[in-house]
Amino acid sequence: MYSIEPNIFIIEDDPVYLKMLTYKIDAAGYTEIRSFASGEEGLDALTKGMRPDLVLLDFQLGGINGLDTLRGIKKLRPKTKVIVITMVDDEKVKQECLANGASTYLIKEQSSVDDIVSYIDGIKKKKQSFRQKIMLIAGVVIISLTILLYFTLIG
């Protein structure tokens, strides 16, 4: 079944920040949240067929770093939106993440969870709009087939 609620992955190795971020997003009404403590875990979930609409990705991870994780996400799921959330306030790192497919790059100290929730709201609205277009097209097809059948039967 098609859900308009975005499926969200959080890849964050700081358990305190992860818990806070998950709590705030859940409190905003989003419940399709899966969290991973490493880039490897997140990428493994993608290879097993999970399909997030959005990934909130810490840049500084133990093991495979955020940039390599980002590249892996984009290779496996090119249309998935990725927000890099980090303590690294470095323009070169930011540009490298954006060049590799990050939708945006947020500094933890400068960005609030409300900014992240607003971004998620935007994804939900796009999914709603897409669903409405599909429903309209399906309605037109059903009406057209009904008219065609009617004229076929009486003709």
Supply the key terms.
5 strands; about 160 residues; Rossmann fold; 5 helices
User: Using only CA atoms, what is the Rg?
Assistant: 20 Å
Strand order of the largest sheet: 2-1-3-4-5
Fraction in beta strands: 5-15%
So, CATH architecture? 3-Layer(aba) Sandwich
Text of the CATH class: Alpha Beta
Largest sheet: 5 strands, parallel
What is the arithmetic mean of pLDDT? 86
The low-confidence parts are none
How does this model look, in words?
This protein is of the alpha/beta class and 155 residues long. It has helices spanning 15-27, 39-47, 66-76, 91-99, 113-154, and strands at residues 8-11, 33-36, 54-58, 81-86, 104-107. It is 54% helix and 15% strand. α2 runs parallel beside α3 (66-76). It is elongated, with a radius of gyration of 20 Å.
Secondary structure topology:
Layout lengths: L7 E4 L3 H13 L5 E4 L2 H9 L6 E5 L7 H11 L4 E6 L4 H9 L4 E4 L5 H42 L1
Parallel strand pairs: 1-2, 1-3, 3-4, 4-5
Short description:
It contains five helices and five strands; from the N terminus they run E-H-E-H-E-H-E-H-E-H. The chain has a five-stranded parallel sheet, with helices on both faces.
